[in-house]
Structures are given as C-alpha cells and as structure tokens.
Design goal:
Structural class: alpha/beta
Strand content: 5-15%
Shape: globular
Strand order of the largest sheet: 1-8-7-6-5-4-3-2
Order of helices and strands: HEHHHHEHHEHEHEHEHEHEHEE
Number of strands: 10
Length: 348
C-alpha cells in the first residue's frame, strides 16, 4: 500500500487533523540572535529565520511538533516554509537549504513515528513549501509591467532543491501552501512531479491556496474555481485553503471547493483576524465551532490552523471533529477521470 493509499484510507474513516502555526509558537520562545545563529557565522543577522532552528536549536521545533501531536494532530508540517534558496538568501543561508530541509524532515519524521508507535494510529509528515517572496505572474515594478525578477525554470529548480531534501529527510508529501500566485504553484507542482519521477514512485502533492480579498481570489487573480482547474491535472492528494482570513470569512469558498473537487479538502485558517497589534485573539472554542460548521456540513476532510493557532486550537478542533463523518468524494457528474495521469475530459 502506498502512502497515498494509506492517507486516503485514514481520511475515509474520519476527519484528519493537521497541525497549527509554527511562527507564532516560535515567537513565544523569545529567542535571541545568538539562539537563532548558534555556532553558525553567516555574516547576516539570523533572528527571525525560523527554519534554521532545525540546525541551531532543534529543541524548539521538536517541542512544537510534540505539542501538536499531543493535541491530536495526524499530520506534522515541517518547519520549512521559507527553507528555499530565494528566502534564505535574505539571511546569507542559501548554502544551507539542503541541510535545513533534511534535518527538519528528519525531526518531524522521528516524532511522528514515535507517536504512531504509541497507539498504532498513522501519523504523516508533510514537507512544507512556501511561495517565496517572488511572483511569476506580477511585476514588482509598477513602471515596467513586463518585468519579472525570476523566471519559471529558476523557481522550479529552487523548489526541486527543497523537495529533494524534504523527501530525503522522510517527508511523505509535498505541501505547496499559501499559494498567492498560481504560476508559482505550477512551478512547485512540476518540481514535485519531476522529483517523483526521479524516485521512481508517486510523490503525493498537497495544494493550499491563500486568498487576498473576500471575493475569493489570490494575488494573481484566480478564484478558487480557477485555481482548481489550473492544478487538477497534478492529481493533488488534498486541495484547499490556508491563512487568508479566519474561518468565518472562508465559509463560502470552502463550500465551493467541497462541491467542485474530486479529491480531499484540507482547510487550515488563521485564528480569526489580527487585532490592532497584529495578534490573534480568537479563542480555540470559537475557531473549532466555526470549522465545525464545515465538518457537520460534510465539506472537509482535513482541518487545522494557520497564523495565531496554538496547540489549544488544534485540540479543540480535534475534539470537535471526533465522530464526525468526513466529506465524501464524488466525481463531478459532468466529468470523468481517465486512467493514470491523463487529464480530465468531458464525459460522453
């Protein structure tokens, strides 16, 4: 049985739980520059480089993974949101990309396997891949609309470097998350497909879009429907939404995806909207109640939290979801899937 089969089998039994925020949890440690840098001498200030903690202070991400598993999570997302060559260049750490990703995945894998051994319930590791701070669809120069800082092939190679390292470290899936530019996501998808081909096996992809306005579009202008049709050829294991807003604002867009997609739906919203100081005040029970509406309506398969969410939020969500039947996947009536990796075509 492949990891895709195992995950789908578990998702058919119950609503699965992914973990919550890492950045805000790391902030609670109030780490100093020396804590971030450790013994590294990179010539740049490392404070705020959360990904590098896998090398310099692994006890921090380890404690966070443990807290989320204790809260009831089935999936650990690696602490690698910015562990790519582009983002790490800001810290002079682009030469450590492979090492950061390998060690982050190894750490999550070890803890996931430890918790699985305790009760026999499968635990999974999703290799988290953020969007970088570059965009393929939009120009950063308002005076030159055609200008791009990077091109598609370069970004694909950046993603491939990260994906290879995450898989080497033990990640089960590639999670391309917080997608604000659909073309960026396509570069990640191609990198993941090529990585799987190089391995000679299926490498499942999870995709998660982030919305930039309440109409339901990302920064590159795609609606959730358009995003799905742009990426469905990749046969994603899950598709859904993260970050964006709180659960209240995501409600109509979750409903659209749940009715449209013939794959698992994963949603992990922020813990409400930030207050005037940028902090998140939404109580765990409030978040759980809001996402619980999706669960009771049969609209989701995987739930978790993004910015501002804590182990308490994940526990509240896990408690809410216990015993609730997961969303059933149905092929849309006007379409049929051909075998293998072939695209969807209109049914006769």
């Amino acid at each position: 049985m492949t990891i895709r089969d195992t995950f789908n089998a578990e998702a058919a039994k119950r609503i699965l739980i992914t973990d919550g925020a890492f950045g805000t949890e790391i902030q609670n440690w109030k780490l100093s520059e020396a804590d971030y840098a450790g013994t590294l001498t990179l010539g740049h200030d490392q404070k705020g480089n959360n990904d590098i903690l896998a090398l310099t202070k692994p006890a921090v991400p380890e404690s966070i993974h443990r807290a989320y598993f204790e809260a009831g999570a089935d999936i650990a997302e690696t602490n690698t949101f910015s562990a790519n060559r582009i983002s790490q260049a800001d810290y002079g750490a682009e030469g450590l990309v492979r090492e950061i990703n390998v060690e982050s995945a190894k750490l999550a894998r070890r803890i996931a396997d430890e918790y699985q051994a305790k009760d026999g319930r499968p635990r999974f590791v999703a290799g988290a891949i953020g969007p970088t701070n570059k965009t393929l669809s939009l120009s950063p120069d308002v005076n030159d609309p055609g200008y791009r800082e990077i091109d598609f092939d370069y970004l694909k190679d950046v993603y491939r470097e990260q994906i290879d390292a995450l898989v080497e470290g033990g990640a089960d899936f590639v999670l391309i998350e917080t997608v604000f530019d659909t073309l960026n996501a396509k570069a990640g998808i191609m990198a993941a497909i090529e990585a799987g081909e190089a391995l000679g096996r299926d490498l499942p992809i999870m995709l998660s879009m982030t919305l930039t306005d309440l109409s339901g579009r990302n920064l590159s202008g795609h609606t959730v429907e358009a995003f799905w049709h742009a990426v469905r050829h990749a046969r994603p294991l899950t598709i859904g939404l993260n970050c964006s807003f709180g659960a209240e604002q995501l409600r109509p867009h979750v409903k659209v995806l749940s009715e449209l997609c013939d794959t698992l739906i994963m949603v992990y919203p922020n813990a409400g909207l930030p207050n005037e100081l940028g902090a998140y005040d939404e109580e765990p029970e409030t978040t759980a109640g809001l996402v619980g509406e999706w669960a009771q309506a049969g609209q989701v398969n995987v739930l978790g939290g993004c910015c501002g969410s804590t182990p308490a939020h994940i526990k509240a969500i896990a408690d809410m979801a216990r015993g609730v039947m997961p969303r059933r996947i149905a092929v849309p009536p006007t379409r049929t899937r051909l075998a293998g990796l072939e695209p969807f075509t209109m049914a006769a």
